[in-house]
Design a protein that fits this description.
alpha/beta, Rossmann fold, 7-stranded mixed beta sheet, 5-stranded antiparallel beta sheet, 11 helices
């Protein structure tokens, strides 16, 4: 991470000066001062050995180890709601190829099979990857390089990063590589926690997403949009997904509805579409310019997921 002459940090996304924001047990959170960025990031970042220990302790203890898993995977019931909402937006997901980047033990892969998708996953942690690899019908790899070595030219209709982008060393570089794995017209779904949510504002350094030592970046709408643009996406939008939580009582459901309406709920969801260069053709009858697909874009790719404006 670049330091300036005064001992401060420079934003790794836009290069602007950053100021100390929060002092945590394991690091310091810095906030970019640029109004069109505002990225929050950890300096120093834990090294690979320390991160591996925390992942084993907090997420993936070998054989359970009798230790409590502090950061559980998202329940299948919530993931199922997300896929249902994706079907409402795009139509049937049956037969589409899905890549879950940072798939953990594979809950999203497992649920995607219920919707007839053809899933693959990438997971660096060996313990989690071994569990995910046991899911019938799902191929799981350690890295993008391993996937490309095994499946040369592989492309996907949908790629998901479910609460993963905050863990990456260089998120915009990873997003750019994933963009190249999308088929033309394919979609990338990013979910992460919002630093502007009510819980983050109240709990500050005690918010669990700051306390989690495996988180290296902390996003809001502005900084996440900037990271998405840096990865080469030109068409993307926030996807406002309202989730039903079965364990919530009346009061929590009521509060959630208010926070959702005010934009203060915990989660951010963004859909990003791969748009390649297009030829502009002129409608000689109306004088209106229309975009036409590149010649190498297969008709079946164009129709796999319904193409329409982002809303």
């Amino acid at each position: 991470m670049t330091r300036n002459a005064n001992g401060g940090a420079e934003c790794p996304l836009c290069g602007h000066a950053a100021a100390r924001h929060l002092l945590l047990v394991h690091t310091t959170v810095w906030r970019c001062a640029a109004p069109d960025c505002g990225l929050e990031f950890a300096v120093p970042q834990l090294d690979e050995e320390a991160l591996a220990r925390f992942y084993a302790d907090l997420y993936y203890p070998a054989n359970g180890n009798g230790r409590e898993v502090r950061f559980e995977n998202t329940p299948d019931s919530i993931l199922r709601q997300v896929f249902q909402k994706l079907e409402s937006r795009f139509g049937s997901l049956g037969g589409l190829r899905l890549l879950d980047y940072g798939c953990g033990r594979g809950p999203l892969l497992r649920v995607s099979l219920e919707f007839g998708m053809q899933p693959a996953g990438i997971e660096q942690d060996p313990e989690a990857r071994a569990v995910a690899a046991k899911i019938p019908g799902a191929a799981v790899y350690q890295s993008i390089d391993d996937l490309q070595n095994a499946e040369a030219g592989a492309q996907f209709d949908l790629i998901t990063l479910w609460t993963v982008v905050e863990h990456l060393r260089n998120p915009w570089a990873d997003l750019a590589r994933l963009r190249a794995l999308l088929c033309p017209g394919g979609w990338l779904l990013i979910s992460t926690m919002d630093i502007r949510c009510l819980r983050a504002r109240i709990e500050r350094e005690h918010w669990e997403n700051y306390e989690n030592p495996t988180h290296l970046y902390y996003f809001d709408r502005i900084s996440l949009a900037r990271a998405i643009r840096a990865a080469g996406f030109s068409e993307f939008s926030e996807w406002k997904v309202k989730i039903s939580y079965a364990h919530h009582g009346f009061v929590r459901r009521w509060l959630y509805r208010i926070m959702f309406a005010l934009g203060l709920a915990d989660g951010l969801f963004y859909l990003c579409k791969r748009i390649d260069q297009v030829e502009r053709t002129e409608d000689t009858t109306s004088g209106v310019n229309h975009a036409s697909a590149q010649p190498d874009q297969r008709p079946e790719d164009r129709k796999r997921i319904r193409v329409g404006p982002l809303t």
